[in-house]
Amino acid sequence: xxxxxxxxxxxxxxxxxxxxxxxxxxxxxxxxxxxxxxxxxxxxxxxxxxxxxxxxxxxxxxxxxxxxxxxxxxxxxxxxxxxxxxxxxxxxxxxxxxxxxxxxxxxxxxxxxxxxxxxxxxxxxxxxxxxxxxxxxxxxxxxxxxxxxxxxxxxxxxxxxxxxxxxxxxxxxxxxxxxxxxxxxxxxxxxxxxxxxxxxxxxxxxxxx
Length: 209
Known about the structure:
Elements: E1 2-4, E2 7-10, E3 33-34, H1 37-45, H2 55-73, E4 78-79, H3 99-103, E5 124-127, H4 139-157, E6 162-169, H5 174-185, E7 195-199, H6 202-208
Parallel strand pairs: 3-4, 5-6, 6-7
Antiparallel strand pairs: 1-2
Helix pairs in contact: 1-2
């Protein structure tokens, strides 16, 4: 009903059909939204970097997890935070904050989570978001070495996660990106399981890729 100054202006009939099913805990359509600790730090602490061992750093870690849980509740997977300057990253593996996000242990009542996907990890992970991976100028051997290590980590720790190497963002270096992607594809080791992704405009992609 629509009322104006308390008087009924319009009444519109509404009929709802309720179907007996639940949406799956793992979304049919995968999503990813970039997530940067520096943005959180600036808004809460006035600086892009805070010492991870300080009280502010511990609060920042909690905030990152809270935002991750909020997104998870709406079936959105956050990406991109691994290369943040206040996330202690290990070599060729996600930083420690990411393991509970990927294996689902973050999304439990013990951590204050309630909603879809309890115990279900994020289903997508970006390595080197926006082209921030560190071995792009080191040749095919380095590509094999690093992608092997990443692929091995995911097979052992988060086998359900779709992971990819974010080659470059909005770049015109199509020949370079094609070379990198072929290196990955031809890797004789487990690294050939890593997907690669780049963003570029449609016209360039259709003509050159």
